[in-house]
Specification:
Elements (H helix, E strand, L loop, with lengths): L6 E7 L3 E7 L4 H16 L4 H8 L3 H9 L6 H10 L23 H10 L2 H12 L3 H20 L2
Antiparallel strand pairs: 1-2
Helix pairs in contact: 1-3, 2-3
Amino acid sequence: MPQGKYRVYWGIHSYSQKVLQLTDNPNPVDIHVGGRLRLRRTLLGKTQTDLGNAVGLTFQQIQKYERGANRIGAGRLYDFSQLLDVPVSFFYDDMPGDMKEKQPDSVGTLFDQEQLASRESLKLIRAYYNIGDAKIRSGLYELARSLSVNTNSED
C-alpha cells in the first residue's frame, strides 16, 4: 500500500465484489460538516478541548473532525448537536446541492468558508448578536453594508 495519509472506503461492486478505494482528499461533505461544527463551537465560545472533554475525545480528534480529515459518525454527530444546542440538520445546512461534484480544494468555496470561520468574523458575529436592541443591530448592519459598498467601489 502506498505511504502517506489515506482513507479507506469499502463498497459493493457487481453484487458481491468488494471494492477498495484509496484517497488522500477529504470528502467535501465531511469538510462542510466539520466546518459547521467549528462554526457553532466558536460561536458558543467553546474550545476544542471543552468539546473534546464533553464527549471523551482529545482536542486533536476534534481538530480532525473540524478539518474533515476524519468522518463524524451518526452517534457522535447527535452528541455534538445536543452539546451545541442545534438540530443534527444544522451540520448540513447551507450545503451546496452540487457538493458531491465539487472538489474539496475548490478555492472559492474554501476561501468563503475560511473567511466566515475566521476568529475576527466569529467575534464580530458574537458581538452583533449580543446587542439587545434590534434597531441598533439594524443600524449597525446598514453602516457595515454602506462601508463595504464604498470600499468595494474604490477597487
